[in-house]
Write a structure and sequence with these properties.
alpha/beta; Rossmann fold; two-stranded parallel sheet; 11 helices; about 10% strand; signal
Length: about 350
């Protein structure tokens, strides 16, 4: 009798308790009012916590707010965390700075943001890369045309002038990789300390970045288990790779499992990843394209290596056939990029420009 009363009391307390939210998007006070999480994948345990290593101009805001918020994660420090279910964990981002990965017992370089290789506070490290030249072009149309960057009111600075105001050594520091138009990826992951890592006697030195730093960056990216490309955000192969990693449902080939699944924001997000710059016209080719290719020489090489790394990871996860459908990426040379940009659509809230 007593046991029965205790059980009834417990059930009443449970029914009176506020329901918890499994993900940020399901919280009743979430700003975008999606109301539910992506359905979880059966027999799958998602990483306990995500560290989003921010590389500006590649779609980080989209990845955090349109994707991670709909999985079993809450933003680190969010006021909504009190309403999270026990099964949920958190995501956090690094605020665009030089990031180094250190092994157990290794002393971290002073002044740089460090993440442990083992014994991670958050189980998954994510970073998003985009073709280096196309990233700068996109960033110009988003930020370079703002009034605060204009030489005179109503007269935006040309792309070349904007680049020259912000490229090394101007307005850059390892703790604030904000408007960086030159070799941003090498600096973010190569242990950049804010000064030249090579000198003019080195024929491979471009803006203080050389082969050694880019090599360190390439090795660092091997520790980023959630490395993805902006260009493949809507690609079924990369979506399927992410679905198996972060445990949300698909049809097995990177598509929505239902014809009218209202939770499926991946293909039609609130704003396309890297989709800023609605004033950018279709087919726009900058006169300074040769300059952009030259000052991003090392990032272009690093991007190509990273793309191959992601292809291998995707193939290992989803199979060679689906991985083979990943879209072709823009070329690295001036002539090829000119032809590519001439065919680019104007960006919208749903589709990023090239």
């Amino acid at each position: 009798m007593r046991a029965g009363m205790l059980l009834l009391l417990a059930l009443r307390r449970a029914s009176a308790a506020e329901p918890c939210a499994l993900c940020m998007a399901a919280h009743p006070n979430h700003p975008f009012k999606w109301g539910r999480c992506m359905p979880p994948r059966d027999q799958c345990s998602p990483p306990k916590g995500v560290e989003l290593v921010v590389v500006r101009g590649t779609g980080n805001k989209w990845f955090a707010e349109d994707f991670l918020d709909q999985l079993r994660y809450f933003a680190h420090g969010s006021r909504h965390l009190d309403g999270a279910c026990d099964a949920s964990s958190t995501w956090r981002w690094t605020e665009a700075r030089t990031t180094v990965f250190v092994g157990l017992g290794t002393r971290a370089p002073p002044g740089l943001f460090t993440l442990p290789i083992t014994g991670r506070e958050r189980a998954s490290y994510v970073a998003i890369l985009r073709h280096p030249v196309l990233r700068v072009v996109s960033r110009y149309w988003f930020e370079g045309a703002w009034g605060q960057h204009q030489a005179e009111k109503g007269r935006p600075r040309p792309l070349g002038a904007w680049v020259n105001r912000t490229r090394f050594p101007n307005r850059q520091s390892p703790g604030h990789l904000w408007n960086v138009p030159d070799n941003l990826y090498s600096k973010t992951f190569g242990g950049w300390r804010g000064n030249k890592a090579c000198d003019a006697t080195d024929p491979t030195c471009v803006g203080g970045v050389g082969a050694a730093m880019t090599g360190r960056a390439e090795r660092a990216l091997a520790h980023v288990d959630g490395l993805v490309l902006t260009e493949w955000i809507n690609a079924p192969a990369q979506i399927e790779f992410l679905s198996r990693k972060f445990c949300f449902q698909t049809d097995g080939a990177g598509r929505s499992p239902g014809a009218h699944a209202s939770w499926w924001h991946f293909h039609r997000p609130r704003r396309a990843g890297g989709g800023h710059g609605s004033k950018r016209p279709a087919g726009w080719v900058p006169d300074e394209l040769e300059l952009l290719v030259r000052i991003n020489r090392w990032d272009l090489r690093l991007f190509a290596r990273a793309a191959e790394m992601i292809r291998r990871r995707v193939a290992a996860s989803v199979g060679d056939a689906l991985a083979g459908t990943l879209p072709k990426l823009a070329p690295a040379d001036v002539a090829g990029l000119t032809a590519w940009l001439k065919n680019c659509p104007a960006p919208t809230s749903e589709v990023a420009a090239c």
